Amino acid sequence: KQEVTQIPAALSVPEGENLVLNCSFTDSAIYNLQWFRQDPGKGLTSLLLIQSSQREQTSGRLNASLDKSSGRSTLYIAASQPGDSATYLCAVYFMGGSNYQLIWGAGTKLIIKP
Amino acid sequence: NAGVTQTPKFQVLKTGQSMTLQCAQDMNHEYMSWYRQDPGMGLRLIHYSVGAGITDQGEVPNGYNVSRSTTEDFPLRLLSAAPSQTSVYFCASSYYDGGGETQYFGPGTRLLVL
Question: Mind telling me how many Å the CA of A107 is from chain B's nearest CA?
Fold first, then answer.
């Protein structure tokens, strides 16, 4: 059974710091991995999608890496800003049974202190 | 494009009442899904649809019904509300481009069952 874990559950850092959020998964036979951002009281916004054949994806100050063999992904945020405060979720897309499924981590709540 | 819209934003029900959560998308996506999000847990898939007239169960379907009469609409019905269904419900639509799904989420419906 695929399980997705995000540690820590919450993280608070001063503005300007570079930081890394972690995501681990138990079954390496994934199709892709996605990182999402969730703001309080709002839906989820897709940030980055990494295909299983890729090692990393970049968008602005965000860089996501994928190591399938170790079952890990990281989301690197450079020069953090208060506007980056949100909950970040990762989800893996994999074949579970007869259908592809999207399995979610519980998220890391990030607070950037001005 | 309005994207994915959900109504209502908030709802309070008494145990045993029924209601329908509405979801609509204007992106002509074939794939739509309903998730629930509970504290400390990842999103869990309730039901999904791969096109008009086709629905299937997700991870936690009990107590919920769906229908997909049009590409645009995917309502979720609670048949007899229970306190365990207190949660935040998200509707998503997605497209598949060979590299996996790209999902778009609605703003969510916060449901309290007393």
Answer: 7
Sequence-distant (≥ 6) Cβ neighbours of residue A97 within 8 angstroms = none
* Of residues A31, A42, A105, nearest to B42 (C-beta): A105
Question: CB-based contact (8 Å) between B41 and chain A?
Answer: yes
Q: What is the pLDDT of residues B23-54, one digit of tens each?
A: 999 999 999 999 999 988 889 999 999 899 99
- The pair of three-digit structure tokens given for residue A41, joined into one six-digit string: 């009281």
Q: What percent of chain A has pLDDT over 90?
A: 74
Nearest 5°: the CA angle B101, B104, B110 is 130
- Beta carbons of B57 and B66 less than 8 angstroms apart: no
Task: Mutate one of B31, B43, B88 to test the A interface: name it (highest A CB count within 10 A).
Answer: B43
Residue appearing with tokens 């990762």: A90
- The Cβ of residue A8 has, within 10 Å, a number of other Cβ atoms equal to 11
Q: Which tens digit of pLDDT belongs to each residue from B89-99? A: 999 998 877 66
What CA–CA distance (Å, rounded) separates A72 from A32? Answer: 12
Residue-wise pLDDT tens digits, A70-111: 999 999 999 999 999 999 999 998 876 666 778 899 999 999
